[in-house]
Specification:
single chain; mainly alpha; 60% helix; 0% strand
Length: 284
């Protein structure tokens, strides 16, 4: 890889690192605001701890996940029929395609129950919404999510560029997890924002399965999943978790899926339950 190409990709990595600073900028202010409003209770502190807890195994498994992603992306690159050169235009296209793949990955995480239960539900199980919620990510994500981005490599984009684009869209998510920023007018319509993401974490009927986008909201507008923030958001699952126990945070929806599968006698119904949306109840 030539130096110019590498420096272009490094710009994406630099932007990603800058976006991650949101955690250290917003979290102290959020804690202060909660304290000032009399909402910094022991329960809220435990909930923040519960949100941080999934990030610990994610860090511990970081080396294994990195090795898996390198193996997966390298294998996809070998299968690519040609190589697309890396330049400002193709970097923009790669970001756009990775943004679309994130939308598809995110939507599948909500609409396929086994994916929801063992992975993405962890991120949505808190009844609070702050910077620690951005850390509330299952370690399983590192082994499931990367598959959704291999098509971008298979059509010829450099795997290192795709990895950097993925790092960018993931880093962009951090600043979205805050109540300290209100509505942003036209920005909310075009780009993902705290207002849009608060909607995504809402448990009210009008907010369920809305605003899947990563950076751009164009995919939500295009596929009919965009919803602006209206009614004050109630965060968490439709059936609230009611626990700040880190183990419960990690396994609650997975255990619930296992119980539902056990209570379903038909193998056909069990398969349907795995791949249909959460809430699907097969005929028994």
């Amino acid at each position: 890889m030539n130096g110019r190409k590498m420096s272009q990709i490094q710009i994406l990595d630099w932007i990603s690192n800058l976006l991650l600073l949101a955690l250290f900028i917003f979290l102290p202010f959020e804690i202060w605001q909660r304290y000032k409003n009399g909402k910094l209770t022991w329960r809220s502190v435990r909930e923040m701890g519960a949100s941080i807890s999934p990030f610990i195994p994610t860090l511990l498994l970081g080396g294994i996940v990195l090795g898996f992603v390198v193996w997966l992306f390298s294998g996809a690159a070998v299968l690519a029929p040609w190589q697309i050169p890396t330049n400002p235009l193709t970097i923009f296209l790669a970001v756009l395609l990775v943004d679309l793949c994130y939308y598809l990955d995110h939507r599948c995480g909500h609409r396929i129950r086994v994916y929801w239960a063992v992975s993405h539900s962890v991120h949505h199980s808190s009844n609070q919404f702050d910077q620690t919620t951005g850390l509330r990510i299952s370690a399983i994500d590192g082994f499931t999510s990367p598959w959704f981005y291999t098509p971008v490599i298979l059509i010829g984009f450099d795997p290192l560029l795709v990895a950097s684009c993925l790092g960018l869209v993931l880093a962009y998510q951090q600043w979205l997890h805050t109540e300290t920023i209100g509505k942003l007018g036209w920005f909310d319509v075009v780009f993902n924002s705290p207002s849009n993401h608060r909607v995504h974490h809402g448990s009210q009927p009008q907010y369920i399965d809305k605003n899947y986008g990563a950076i751009l909201m164009v995919w939500d507008h295009l596929f009919g999943t965009y919803e602006p923030e209206g009614e004050e958001v109630t965060y968490g699952l439709i059936e609230p978790l009611k626990s700040s126990n880190p183990i419960t945070v990690h396994i609650a929806e997975g255990a619930k899926l296992v119980r539902d599968l056990w209570a379903t006698p038909s193998w056909r119904s069990r398969m349907a339950m795995l791949f249909r949306p959460p809430g699907y109840v097969p005929d028994r």
